[in-house]
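Working notes for the structural subgroup meeting. M.R. asked for a predicted model of this chain before we commit to crystallization trials. I am recording the input and output together here so anyone reviewing the notebook later can reproduce the run.

Input as submitted:
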Amino acid sequence: MLFAEHGYSGTSSKDVCLAANVNLAAVNYHFGSREGLYEAVLVKAHEHIMSLEMVSAFAESEHTPREKLQAVLAHLVRQGSLDKKSWGFKVLLREIMRPSPAAPSLVNQAIRPKAAVLKKLVAEVLQLPGDHPAVQRGLMLTLLPCIGLLLAPREIRRAVLPAIDAKVPDLLEDISCFAFAGLDALARAHRLP
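Returned structure, recorded in token form:
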């Protein structure tokens, strides 16, 4: 994928049309502009890591809130442990390093809807109202290790912290232990009278 290789600024509509062997007007016809195409690519790329449907399925399952959150963490740890990163991951990494004008669309169409589902789940784990500040902080602090695992190149992880490349079940157990201990502490600190 051209956006994965060259980023938003390094990929023209003409490049896309030539690679797809379509009429040069195809981008504008189907997406309105190159930015419209890139917005669609960003949203699809985010789905490669975890789709809204998947997050919703975890949240709507019959499991306890902790088990649901554990399933989310397990998925993200598996994604972060993959040897080969998808084109979608590469597009998102480029976007994080050098945000484009389409960044707000990524937030509004992909990140915010998933965060809403996950905030509700964390609120259930914490047994706090969904609008409590500790819920947002708990979500951020729970997901940051997984995001770090996704973003840190495997070669650097192996050189600096080789135990991070442990077997997925072992790493998941440690991340879960850390996350739930932190969430339990947050729940105690912010428990309503």
